[in-house]
Amino acid sequence: MKKYYMKRVVCLMLSLSIAAMMAGCAGGNAGSEGTLPEVTEEYVDPSLIVTPDSVQIDTEVTVSPLNASKQNGGIFEGWGTSLCWWANRLGYSDSLAQQAADLFFGEDGLKMNIMRYNIGGGDDPSHTHITRTDSMVPGWLKEENGEYVYDYTADYNQLNVLDRCVKAAGDNAIVEVFSNSPPYFMTVSGCSSGGVDSNKNNLKDDSYEEFAEYLAHVTDYIQNKLGIEVTSVSPMNEPNTNFWGAYSYKQEGCHFDAGEAQSKIIELTAEALKKYDLDNVIIAASDETSTELQIQEYNAYSDAAKKVIGRINTHTYNPTRAGELGALAREENFKLWMSEVDGNGTSGENAGEMSAAIWFGQKIISDMNSLTPAAWVMWQAIDKHICAEGYLGRQDSGMIDINTGYWGLAVADHDNDDIILTQKYYAMGQFSRFIRPGYTVISTGEDSIAAYDSDSGMLVIVAINPTAADKTANFDLSQFESVGRRVSVTRTSGSTADGEQWAELDDIYTYDGGFVAELKANSITTYVLNNAKAGNVNLDEISIKKAKITGSAAWNNGSDTVEKVIDGNIDTFFDGVADGWLEIDLGKAVEFDAVAYAPRSGFAGRMLGGKFYGSDNGKDWTELYEIKSSPATGWNFAMLRGSKYRYIRYDVPSGGGDHLCNIAEIKLYKLK
Question: What is the pTM of this model?
Fold first, then answer.
């Protein structure tokens, strides 16, 4: 639809000028000095504004400032990728290295700003088991006449890419160095792929100080000789696992037991950094594969290790306790990053090339909602390589099937000096190009997320439609003090050949309190509003711990009963059955302005269609709020200003399927 709008500047200035002239004739001096202020309010033809009352709404997204992340003071630090292992593979080519830097970190690309440089362990020159062409990351030490000396040219490829990525990212660039394995001669197995017994520590007992020195020396060289500022060092990768066995086809990890072994290398790395006067470089740990293991490892650190750690890094390959880890970070006041994840998952309905893209977008949203990290960093942007000749006598993996799941965002074609982009690449850009460092992330639901920049007044919303049908969505912004009139729209959908890649669509316009938009089937869409103002909404919690709660039976008559909804613990839940319900008797009528609710972790979709009611007598019920989209993991807020009831009821729709009464917690709040 073509847009028709006009500025009211001329008409308003004319009116004001006439009024000023009349005032002057009457003896006043209004308008006699200075100039009239310019009025820039945009007039929009009412026929262009769609309201939720004028169309059938299929889903609703509520953007509440109350759902803003509190991690790292609410400051998001950005997006990124490890350079391991792809930079090692393509850094020989200045052309491919620059293409990658521009595509992943440049202004016209993904605009990532975080890069994780891998300090390689090398491997015994007599070994031939590392057959993956990108994974043989050189060590910085080589043997000469029975001694190990530094070879500062050994890792030219990865450093070439790092330098170009830092320049492409500009002022926002953040560099972390991390280790998959110590140099092979410091390991028990003599192999940088892992231990012969992968359940045991593979760093020699007498090599801890030597390994810490190695990490600090390389960090010092990168920062003070190459002029690339390093923010952090992570000395371990997924350490408390049995994944890393000797003589495997890749170099990816080294086992460190939780507790003493991990604490020791953390403490010694901090000491080594001090010796090099690297006061700006922090220690990050432990880059564990799952949030559950990361919690266990944090709790097992020595007090000395905790004091020198500047950030906790976690991977979310198994995010079962992501919410708990996020809460621990806030309680213990440590910074938290999601520092690695990817996969070959798919999502959507008959989504074709978008199936991997939608899965990836949902993974970003899930991590951001549940973990609330200060940064989100994927594993490696390029996972596959095309080259007829192979590399170092080994054969490259070749092209991926873009209609299924795959790792990475792009494929490096060495034969044609090209980087092949996928819809998954463009999916990443729907987030990273718009949600920028310094913004505050706002949880909005299972298939959407928002971010707000209070300085510029910019509000960003990313929404995914993982179904095969177009949907009409209402974006409820009523909890914002104000929003601008115009919404810019960018979308990715379809295939690389004939679909959309960051397609800029016609602007749409807000009504008072939000906007309505069409979500294309199997698509990811980003909406950007200027002139948004969150305002200050301060709430006081109303204690309901002593309220009487009743409800339907728990599934299989288990222990996850209705009482769990007001126990103050978001990790417990009511596991109700179909047509389930609960009622809270407050004992007397209580005035409240907001209801906060938290879904059962991992089952947020079961709250879709659920409704809250209020009653004075427990018999006659007034509907207060309906959950019209799958809520975010963690807390969600429904503003119900001026409500006053004795009884609160929550129930789910009839009809089976996911309509089970699963809910973790309910709270009531009063505006201050």
Answer: 0.90
